[in-house]
Amino acid sequence: MTEALERHAENWDLRHVDFNDNDFLYDVYAVMRDNGAFARTEEPFLSPDPDGAWVAVRYAECVQILQDWEHFSSNPTPEGAERLTGDLVITLDPPRQQKFRKVLNPYFSPARMKALRPEIAAETDRLIDDFIESGAGDLAEVAWRQPGIVFFKYLLGMPVEDVPLCVELTDTALNGTTEQDRMAAWGGLYQHLHDAVTARLDQPPRDDMIDVLLAAEIDGEKLAFADVVSNAMLLVQAGLETTASAMSFAYHYLATHPAERDRLIEDPELLPRAVEEFIRFAGSIHGIPRTVAKDVEVSGCPFRPGEQVIVNYASANRDERQFPDADRCVLDRRDNRHLGFGAGVHRCLGSNLARLEFQLGLERVLARMPDFTLAPDRTAKFHGNSVTRGFRSVPVVFTASDRSR
Ligand code: HEM
């Protein structure tokens, strides 16, 4: 084992520049899992803490923690009087968190998703049209634009023109180089959404998520305006960069594995399983924190109130104890109970939407440019030392074809 592997395994810092090499990061995870069920980080991302944090790296313990919200709270200050984050679904615990989900859930129902299928296919086709006649293009453009267009136009109710700015602000907020850059971007995103929601107050209601949040009553009370804005911001943050990064990885994988690309073209029925496997194999979220609310022991390790535990979904998803041949991307993998969308009460609210966007993103590209491969004269760009991880550029060449009608 190299010294660098050992050093990173002892103090995992997801923002470290070495992790621009994605395979190296997964090698570090393998060492962390071999060392034990819990590793350490002195640099907890998302929720900085001078005391550092534990990192759950094996599948079984990650599932146990995700299902035990009474000991492992999503609220960063479960015992404290001070509420740092307001009423935000992802940092609440049941029962209030479940009531929030009930408000938002209908927007992600299977029936609603099914009805969106033609719209998502058409939006993806329009993005492919931008370069289909030239025989060369950048698939990262499709991956980064499609989820935002779909979400803003058909669910959230924000102008599509705002997508590029919101993607940029979310990206800097999560992945910016300094804490100062990240905080400034959070502020910018909050202000933008604050203005957008304020503008809606004078308009007639529409059937979208902003209106649902504005009208929602939980425990007989309407949400505070700041909480409407914060939850809208969470949805933007949770729904755009995650799906885009995961999809960009799949495009790169298929552009560099032509036999696998051809297999999906010959057997499109495989697509749903392939999407699950891409999310297991290269999921874009590597960890979300929990805070210990009461003394508890997991696999012989004691945890004390106030300690932070980051659940590392990506490492759990490569755990050989759960997934045979875990380091291989097996597009027709069965029994794929991956943690890419989390588990337990906070399981991803948008997973049905993400799956559909992802599937149609692949389906339309495979149908319209079936021989796409990585452009020989250009390099793909992977952004790795960051909280969400994916390709920023996937330049491809293919046989030129006609625009969609
Ligand atoms: C491939 C894409 C996606 C991935 C990998 C992903 C992953 C996750 C994960 C791991 C969690 C659990 C967080 C936790 O345990 O605390 C989560 C929660 C959540 N996701 Fe996603 N997500 C994706 C797409 C989306 C989309 C498209 C939306 C909405 C537009 C969305 C909205 C949410 C929300 C609101 C939560 C919080 C739910 C709660 O706290 O009850 N996600 N997501």
UniProtKB/TrEMBL annotation:
Keyword list, A-Z:
Cholesterol metabolism, Heme, Iron, Lipid degradation, Lipid metabolism, Metal-binding, Monooxygenase, Oxidoreductase, Steroid metabolism, Sterol metabolism
Q: State the pathway, as annotated in the record.
A: Steroid metabolism; cholesterol degradation
Q: Which cofactor does it need?
A: heme
Signal peptide, first to last residue: none
Family matches, as PROSITE patterns = CYTOCHROME_P450 (PS00086)
Q: Name one Pfam family in it.
A: p450
- InterPro entries reported for this sequence: Cyt_P450 (IPR001128), Cyt_P450_B (IPR002397), Cyt_P450_CS (IPR017972), Cyt_P450_sf (IPR036396)
Q: Alphabetically, which GO biological process terms does the record hold? A: cholesterol metabolic process; lipid catabolic process
GO MF, any single term: heme binding
Superkingdom as given in the UniProt entry: Bacteria
Protein family according to the UniProt entry: Belongs to the cytochrome P450 family.
List the protein's name: Steroid C26-monooxygenase
Q: Which organism is it from?
A: Mycolicibacterium parafortuitum (Mycobacterium parafortuitum)
